[in-house]
Amino acid sequence: MTNVSHSGNASNTFEAFYEGWLVRQEHFLDELLSAQQTIDEARDEDLRDLVSRVLFHYQQYYDEKSRLGQRDVLLVFSPTWYTSYERSLLWIAGYKLAKIHESVAAPPFMDAVRRYGRAGHGQMVEDDAVIKSLKSALETVVENANLLRTTMATKLVDLLSSGQAVRFLTARS
């Protein structure tokens, strides 16, 4: 029961953050669109400042998502704060929990099932260790994926001119 309420609290906390983040995202998109309209007249340092603020905004999202992963990693892989439409886009785009399950979850779960089948009901304590191990592996997947996304975006933006970076971030937003 504690796990359910803990998951609910983690989900509610992230959902509140995410709603505020989306509002700020809309403001940044407005700024990016405005900057894109006047990109030839804009000062390079102003464009770079905007790019830095937008990248920091995304960093906040991934930091919060990592904190959620530490509280309840399964919520990261099954986001309850997304609408049905957003979840369908994840599915259409090929993001399927089953693929993660095959590479990370399947071996520990199959081992647990085999041990449970052989040992009987007394094996449940060890199965908790397998589940903790699985959650730890999933947390690592989340952290590494977030790091990869932020590092790649930062390196790409560093390669681009300030105007190109504004166009890139506008398209991404």
TrEMBL record:
GO terms for molecular function: sequence-specific DNA binding. It comes from the Eukaryota. Signal peptide: none annotated. Residues 11-173 form the DOG1 domain. PROSITE patterns: DOG1. GO terms for biological process: DNA-templated transcription. PANTHER family: DOG1 DOMAIN-CONTAINING PROTEIN, PROTEIN DOG1-LIKE 4. This is DOG1 domain-containing protein.
